[in-house]
Amino acid sequence: MRPIIAPSVLASDFANLQSEVEMLNKSQADWLHIDIMDGRFVPNISFGFPVMEAIKKHAQKPMDVHLMIVEPELYIERFRAAGADTISVHIEACNHLHRTIQQIKATGAKAGVAVNPHTSVSLLEDVIEDLDLVCLMSVNPGFGGQKFIHNTYRKIEALKNLIISRNSNALIEVDGGVNEQNAPLLLEKGADVLVAGNFVFSAADPIQTIANLKNSTK
Q1: Is 142 marked within a binding site?
Q2: d(CA 214, CA 218)
Q3: Topology of 4-214 in CATH?
Q4: Per-residue pLDDT tens for 68-108?
Q5: What is the mean predicted confidence (pLDDT) over 197-208?
Q6: 145 annotated as a binding-site residue
């Protein structure tokens, strides 16, 4: 099965946001990955509801929203109303993770949990059956263009084993430093969804670059 490709809109040209989204509509991208940063959970600020709603007006593909924020439970319903199809919260930001997952599902959105590079996937044992997606951060969250962390390969294998052992339907998403060189091995280890930001939007031909990622083989 070919991977799900989710270009990160954070790396797009915000002065030409509509045309960037329309380009993704024409491409083989499956989802639009939307990074929300609050300057507290991560040392950066991205954008909030108005920009997300503007993206939604033009997007013809599902919006995969990654909340890198503290107290995400306060905003779940608003992100769903702004167009989120999948909402991922960070395990490190949730005191009551199971409750937050159920809150996401209650909105009708798919529920995901994001895991920082230093966090063990074993901490997902008690919620893996409730998840639609696990986002493994393969860089430290907060900034695009970082170098891929190679321990991610081991974490994918461990997470895949956990998913199989618990008969979970969760997809494995890898976010950070993804490119044509490491995509085949990521997929071989068990990844299902590839997030790519700068690699796509800085390419001379983003549509072809997306197609190349889409055609990566396990």
Answers
A1: yes
A2: 11
A3: TIM Barrel (3.20.20)
A4: 999 999 999 999 999 999 999 999 999 999 999 999 999 99
A5: 96
A6: yes
Of the residues 38, 132, 175, 192, only one is catalytic, namely: 175
Mapped onto helix, strand or coil, the DSSP state of residue 67 is strand
Of 35, 38, 64, 132, which is the active-site residue? 35
User: pLDDT tens-digit profile of 128-170?
Assistant: 999 999 999 999 876 666 789 999 999 999 999 999 999 999 9
Q: Is residue 192 annotated as involved in ligand binding? A: no
Any catalytic annotation for residue 13? no
Q: Which residues contact 36 (CB under 8 A, 6 or more apart)?
A: 46, 47, 48, 52, 65, 66, 67, 68, 69, 79
Report whether 39 belongs to an annotated binding site: no
Examine the residue annotation and report whether 132 is marked as an active-site residue of this protein. no
- For 161, the token pair is 């084993």
In the chain, domain spans: 4-214
pLDDT by residue (tens digit) across 35-49? 999 999 998 899 999
